[in-house]
Design a protein that fits this description.
The protein is mainly β. It has helices at residues 2-17, 31-41, 43-47, 63-68, 274-277, 302-308, 324-328, 342-345, 359-364, and strands at 74-76, 81-87, 94-100, 108-113, 120-126, 132-137, 142-147, 153-157, 168-171, 180-183, 188-190, 198-200, 212-214, 220-223, 237-242, 264-271, 287-293, 317-322, 331-338, 350-358, 370-376, 384-389, 396-400, 415-419, 433-439, 445-451, 458-463, 471-476. 13% of the residues lie in helices and 34% in strands. The strands form 5 sheets. Strands 13-14-15-16-17-21-20-19-18 form a 9-stranded antiparallel β-sheet. The chain has a 6-stranded mixed β-sheet with strand order 3-4-5-6-10-11, with no helix packed on it. Strands 1-25-24-23-22 form a 5-stranded antiparallel β-sheet. It is globular and about 65 Å long. The termini are far apart. The relative contact order is 0.15. Residues 1-23 have low confidence and may be disordered.
Length: 479
């Protein structure tokens, strides 16, 4: 009987490899594991590196070990390597990173430090030396940072909603701006060098910011990092359309007054178009929708508007990145993570993608937006936070921010996952994910990862790590 089973399994495997049809219920054969194994075995062709990790690390290095060699904070796939960009000198809660002056030949990282107003909020880090300099102090939980297509830095606060909630700020000339102080109450900048290089972008409203998708014409998409609670909708997604659209082919702006973010209109995403758009609410979380106009107001509280306008809510919308291949075709598609809540609810989060027609249609607000699930969370891919699009390959890197100490699977570390785009198969999901890296610090998390233009350098922060200081790694080995 045992020999017969081995023969049947071998024949079945051969049929699958040859494109044949497998018979369900064969003892000892797990088709899901077979597919996962094939995905890992083809990692060089599909992902550009060898040796994906089979499981998360359960190790937790000491502060002394990590300080002596910060690379010990992580275990990488077999053919990937890490260089330490900075450690021991940068603030301890580094989050999102922007490459400066461009993605092709970056020399600096402009990074948010997710801490309080008394601490450095925005810093610049020299990619060659690792030196860190404070650009701005005074932000509350600085989190997203992006370089805009018009040559500025857009950064914002994960500081909740309401009249004192998170705001968006724009910076021009980040290399010549140092030790400026923000007064959050007045929205003014003073001291240091270059205080006039900042502006508060009140037109984008107040909420708990985690990420921005910034398009060359000035259209910006973002979400509210808000969880559902006591029946509220959770975090909604928003769209800003400039009053004066920017020419996508124009060069960098010369002053902040030229930015397309000075003024514009706001819209919130509501899914459900049946019966003239009345079929919306809880349960309508995917599919086609409408951008609902948000009433004009100075410095608007978008969280309150989301409730009033019955926008579609999600569980803690986090980072967003743009699909570069679609942008090359002048179309709008961006993907974002909704973190979820694994330890209490066993809701593992998800990655969703939104399309909004062409750049021109998005700016005119004439497209029908569509949101579809891209990656379903699981005990393996658990509570995704940051997301990064990989240039050239078109893959997506998901950063976990799971409650790993009290996790369903027991204590283990957060991971990085590389996920394939959806192919020509019939579903709309990504075609599979493999584990790139795992941390060796149970209290730390991956944040802010970003690729250069080649898709071969991945800069990523190890936040809340055991050394007590900022650590950024440059992961290479991608082919």
């Amino acid at each position: 009987m045992h020999k017969r089973l081995l023969v049947v399994t071998a024949i079945l495997t051969t049929l699958i490899l040859a494109g044949g049809v497998a018979v369900a219920g064969v003892p000892g054969f797990d088709f899901g594991r077979f597919v996962e194994g094939r995905l890992r075995s083809k990692s060089m062709a599909l992902f550009g590196w060898r040796g994906p990790l089979a499981r998360s690390s359960t190790a937790s290095v000491t502060a002394e070990e990590a300080t002596a060699d910060p690379r010990r904070l992580a275990t990488l796939a077999r053919s990937l390597r890490a260089r330490v960009v900075t450690h021991g000198v940068a603030p301890p809660v580094l989050d999102m990173l922007a490459l400066w002056p461009n993605d092709s030949h970056p020399r600096w990282l402009i990074a948010c430090n997710e801490s309080g107003p008394a601490d450095a909020g925005l810093v610049r880090i020299n990619l060659s030396t690792g030196a860190s300099e404070t650009i701005l102090t005074g932000t509350s939980a600085c989190d997203p940072a992006r370089r805009t297509p018009w040559g500025t830095i857009l950064f914002a606060e994960e500081a909740g909603g309401g009249p004192n909630g998170g705001r968006v700020y724009e910076l021009i000339d980040p290399l010549n701006t140092t030790n400026v102080t923000l007064d959050r109450a007045t929205g003014t900048f003073s001291g240091g060098t270059g205080s006039g290089n900042f502006a508060v972008r009140t037109a984008l409203g107040r909420l708990s910011y985690e990420g921005h998708a910034i398009y060359p014409n000035g259209v910006v998409y973002y979400g509210d990092e808000q969880r559902p609670g006591n029946g509220n909708i959770g975090g909604a997604y928003f769209k800003f359309i400039p009053a004066t659209l920017r020419d996508p082919g124009a060069g960098p702006i010369a002053s902040l007054a030229e930015s397309p973010l000075v003024a514009g209109t706001l819209h919130g995403l509501r899914l459900g178009r049946r019966s003239g758009g009345t079929d919306f609410g809880q349960g309508t979380q995917n599919g086609l929708g409408t951008w609902i106009p948000i009433p004009p107001a100075p410095d608007p509280d978008l969280r309150a508007q989301a409730e009033a306008l019955r926008l579609t809510g999600f569980y803690r919308p986090e980072d967003i990145d743009i699909d570069g291949r679609q942008l090359d075709s002048h179309r709008v598609r961006w993907c974002a993570n909704n973190t979820g809540n694994e330890p209490d609810d066993q809701y593992f989060g998800e990655t969703v993608c939104v399309t909004d027609g062409t750049l021109a249609e998005a700016a005119a607000n004439t497209a029908v937006p569509e949101l579809q699930t891209f990656v379903m969370g699981s005990p393996a891919i658990n509570m995704p936070d940051n997301i990064a699009y990989q240039a050239k390959r078109g893959n997506w890197i998901l950063h976990e921010d799971g409650e790993t100490v009290t996790d369903l699977l027991g204590p283990h570390n957060d991971d990085l996952w590389s996920c394939l785009p959806d192919g020509s198969d019939e579903d709309l999901l990504g075609d599979g994910c493999v584990r790139i890296a795992t941390l060796n610090d149970l209290e730390a998390e991956w944040t802010g990862g970003i690729f250069d233009a080649s898709g071969r350098h991945f800069y990523v922060s190890v936040q809340h790590n055991v050394t007590g200081s900022g650590v950024i790694l440059d992961i290479t080995g991608w082919r």
